[in-house]
Amino acid sequence: MKIIINDQEVNAVYGETLLETSRKAGIHIPTLCYHEAFGGEGRCRMCMVEVEKNGLKKVVAACTYPVTDEVSVRTSTPVIDKIRRNIIMLLYKCASGSPLLQDLFREYGCSDNSLQEDPEERCILCNLCVKACEEIGISAISLIMRGTDKRVATPYSQAAEVCIGCGTCARICPTGAIPMVDEGRQRTIWSKNFELISCERCGSFFATREELTHMASVNEALDIDTCLCENCRKKMVAEKISKYNCS
Amino acid sequence: MMLTTSPDTKKILVCCGTGCQASGSLEVYRELNKKLAPDTGVQVETYTKATGCNGWCEQGPLVKILPDDITYCHVAVADVEAIVEKTIKNGELIKKLLYRDPATKKQVKSHHEIDFYKKQHKIALRHIGEIDPASIEDYLDWGGYQALQKALTMSPQDIITEVIRSGLRGRGGAGFPTGIKWQSCAGQEEPAKYIICNGDEGDPGAFMDRSIMEGDPHTVLEGMIIASLAIGAGHGFIYVRDEYELAITNLTRAINDARIHGYLGHNIMGRDHSFDIEIVRGGGAFVCGEETALITSIEGNVGEPRDKYVFPTAKGLWGKPTVINNVETWANIPVIVKDGAEKFASIGTDKSKGTKVFSLVGKVVNTGLVEVPMGTSLREIIYDIGGGILKGRAFKAVQTGGPSGGCIPADLLDLKVDFDSLTEAGSMMGSGGLIVMDEHTCMVEVARYYLHFLAGESCGKCVPCREGIRCMLEILTRICEGKGEAADLDMLEDLGKTLEIASLCALGKTAPNPVLSTLRYFRSEYETHIRDHRCPAGVCRSLTEFYVDPEICNGCGLCTKNCPVNAISGEKKEPHLISQELCIRCGECFNRCNFMAIKVK
Amino acid sequence: MAGNASQVQEDYMSVIQSYPEEKRYILAMMQDLQRQCNYLPREALEQISRHVDVPFAKIYSMATFYKAFSLVPKGKYAIKICDGTACHIKSSAVLIDQIFNTLGIKPGETGEDGLFSLETVNCIGACAIAPVVVINGKVHSKVSSSGIVDIIRSLGGHENDADN
């Protein structure tokens, strides 16, 4: 089917979200909580766009709005720009320590005001870390409490038995809010210490023992006895292929 | 148990709603049963029953005696003996237990003669206070399950058409037409469908759903069973706040009795239709009143709502088509089906049909539940039914719709209340809370109160609601503390608009209403806080100083007795004095004083 | 004590196992356990997690989201001050002050002797008899600032020495 985005006709698949349609067509809609791997949840509301259907206009979240009609969409209007500016302002106030939000605050031309800032905080509760942890089958962290007290934590804010220290949460975090410290052989994340394993080839510390065990349990093809970092593993595969090709 | 009694039988109805229970009605009920037990030799044939809430909680415990039509108020255990000896045996009235009309100073024999009841029109509350909620026989005696019998003779489409023609709109808040909702769900191809009763009443100041579930549980079940026929659902859920213990007890019993009588379960009334109902206890989260949050909560998750671009009627509980209506809506269904759509549609306004139950509370003389036709003016509700403002003080505003609603000022008292007129006035019907505020209510503090409530009750999922409420609360708090800035009011309006448009669910979209409506009607009060550092109502503690007007004070000592910090001193019958050092500005003395001798500086 | 601990565990288990191993009964299990133990002990939450096969972090997320649950034990007498609108404008805040003056505890706290805990709750639907206070299920209506002190005394509460 076809829909109109910013006066441009684009192809859409029935039932996909407006954000997916736009991205395929190369039309930018800003997001903070969206990741292709998990789909939209409508948390950050940066992707609000104006949809017109049968002459009626409404503002919707592109990441959750399903394309089921031949709608006409505007990704930027004065109302929408104002909403995005306010969202950035609100997020900057609660996560003032995040360099990303500091940049966005300037980029969106937010005017400063006297509302309190929290320079210690970086989390914007986008939930990507929780989703990622769930996706790899661990679920060591979750959103706890509610309302203005909501935050990401392990149960009782203590070292979680199930955490494998893989650091996926820290890597997916858009605002650098999850501290992960690697010092020599030791990694510390979510109040838990892990021993890091070194790569047999290059010697770099690349993963925790728990992470490798978990990987092996979900992926039988993985050989835990040869401990190789991702780089060296790729190299090894490449070498095997070239040997095979030569012979 | 057969309840059909001879016309001479004295029926004694003891109100055992939550309000009356708190005032000791269960003890009165037990004492009555003891004094009237067969072995006590009372010659009069009697039948005592515990009923649901009469709505007149202010006067509880209430005892009604039929067929004499006598209503006794504030009945204590000690009064029971006199009631049995004088009234039951000899038909004598006990004057001190009768209601005394404050206007005419006359005692009134029956509650039917009191304006509080006379001006009401009961549909949803029709049985409450009359029947024993624990007895399905009593419900049947009052014509219960006749609507279901009728519905069994109708086609599903005829039932839906009847509900559409009645013009019934959902009583839970937004006022979506109930019949249209059913039609949309019935049209879904998926064979598995669900029905949900939303009993997660959370608006502070509203308790009509509690009263219906406690006082007339079968009417809710009957409404749901009729809907199950109409849309073809096999399973239903009632989601009730866990705090509503009596409602859960009475509903559980009603479900069991309905199963025994064949109204619920396999092959209802011998027909080829099966439907059963399960109770789910809520966990204490206001946001679960939002239907998508409620659905995900039943599924066993944290109650975060989702965007409603696809309605629950298409994809609801476990992804199946689901009809979800609130308690009061369900209570209207049996009446519509039994008496016909025309009769229902003849009541109310053009676009809001039928009646609405309001819980009239706050600084008003008669507090309690009132049911009036849509289109009744606020003035009629507050002054004719409610008896005006407590202590003859001045009316300032009425808050409708709970945290999603707004405050309506005195010059809109003649507003005819329906879904659309309230929305136009910047407020909302919500579930029907009407909280009356007098001159000692600070509108800025009221807005702060609601935002504080919402800050704790927002699920925290979307940014505009979570962070927007946080920031609006920060601004309101500093205004109440006398630290407001000139730009604050514009910022509140600006943020409010973002919340209205961008929030994910209705909680966030309506969260700015308490602020925007008070800014619209009481802006000068905000300005006085910011500019003059003064709270004219004497509520905001940092900006208030109370003093005793020595000309008026007669030294009755009531304020001294109630001051929580012993800040008031003075000899009996002499003007008293408030120590400004000790005073914590709670306003208790101001509220208590019967002579308006406490003044705000 | 070890025997006691395992007895307690069995008690949790009997509550939890009375429900099918389905996610949708988590809330009901928590409510029953909250009633039984006066709070949700960590071990009980861990057992729910195993019973319904839902990650512990998700169970913890629910236990902290819903206000009906407490993760720390409450006092023998749990004082709940209704802070619904009707109670609020009829000065429920004064009752909180008065309890602090008498027992030295604020909302969310439990006294040192474990006798009283204080919390504010959302509207309990008894607005017509505001302000209301609920203590272990009993509703007290139209409570005045002197009335709350009388109620506390009748339950064995003593004046807070620090205040005098």
Please, could you describe this protein's structure?
The complex is a heterotrimer of chains A (247), B (601) and C (164). By secondary structure, chain A is an alpha+beta fold. Chain A folds into two domains: 2-76, Ubiquitin-like (UB roll) (Roll); 128-246, no CATH class. In chain A, 30% of the residues lie in helices and 19% in strands. Chain A has seven helices and eleven strands. In chain A, strands 2-1-5-3-4 form a five-stranded mixed β-sheet, sandwiched between helices. In chain A, strand 8 and strand 9 form a beta hairpin. In chain A, helix 2 (78-94) runs antiparallel to helix 3 (99-107). The longest helix of chain A has 17 residues, at 78-94. Chain A starts with a strand and ends with a helix. The model of chain A has no long low-confidence stretch (mean pLDDT 94). With 601 residues, chain B is of the alpha/beta class. In chain B, the strands form six sheets. Chain B has a five-stranded mixed β-sheet with strand order 12-11-15-13-14. In chain B, strands 2-1-3-4 form a four-stranded mixed β-sheet, with helices on one face. The longest helix of chain B has 18 residues, at 463-480. The radius of gyration of chain B is 26 Å and the shape is globular. Chain C has 164 residues and is of the alpha+beta class. Chain C has two domains: 2-65, no CATH class; 77-163, 3-Layer(aba) Sandwich (Glutaredoxin), CATH 3.40.30. Chain C is 46% helix and 11% strand. Chain C has helices spanning 2-17, 26-37, 42-52, 56-65, 85-89, 92-103, 145-154; strands at residues 77-82, 116-121, 133-135, 138-140. Chain C has a four-stranded mixed β-sheet, with helices on one face. In chain C, helix 1 crosses helix 3 (42-52), helix 3 packs across helix 4 and helix 6 packs across helix 7. The longest helix of chain C is centred in the first third of the chain and has 16 residues, at 2-17. The model of chain C has no long low-confidence stretch (mean pLDDT 88). Chains B and C meet through helix 1, strand 9, strand 11, strand 15 and helix 17 of B and helix 2, helix 4, helix 5 and helix 6 of C.
